[in-house]
Amino acid sequence: MAYDPASGVLRSRTLTLSYEIPVSKIARFWEALAEGKVLGTVCKKCGRKMFPPQAVCDKCHSTDIDWFEIKSVGEVVAFTHIVVRPASFQDQKVYTPAIAEFKEEGVRVLAWVAPEVPKRQIKVGMKVRVEPRIEDNRRTWVFVPAE
Ligand SMILES: [Zn+2]
What we know:
By secondary structure, the protein is mainly β. 5% of the residues lie in helices and 37% in strands. The strands form 3 sheets. It has a 5-stranded mixed barrel with strand order 6-7-8-10-9. The chain has a 3-stranded antiparallel β-sheet with strand order 4-3-5. Bound molecules: zinc ion. Zinc ion binds next to loops.
């Protein structure tokens, strides 16, 4: 700990967090992001569509799963601006997770709104597309205005 008497601040050690999450059963999703596609899964047994992709149907528990691309225009149904960021996101500026409904595909998608979108432009009802991105060597997906 380092105490700075001029500012009256006690600065802790820098935290570095890293997660390892096994994703081999949904590896196709991460491969598709690099190909410019965002995929969800659909259960071949009961027809349930899922995002983020699941290897096991969360309705009927079948493992007979297929893939579909989310490429239509969705509509933001909820969002929030995160000002007080958790430790693992301290290097981010204020960011905006949102949920958008994609009626054509039949799924709701959770994603951050792209950082270049002005915060005052983000509204419930905003039309968006979901777009793959590579940020800090990590594959991710964001919402961008559909216009
Ligand atoms: Zn199912």
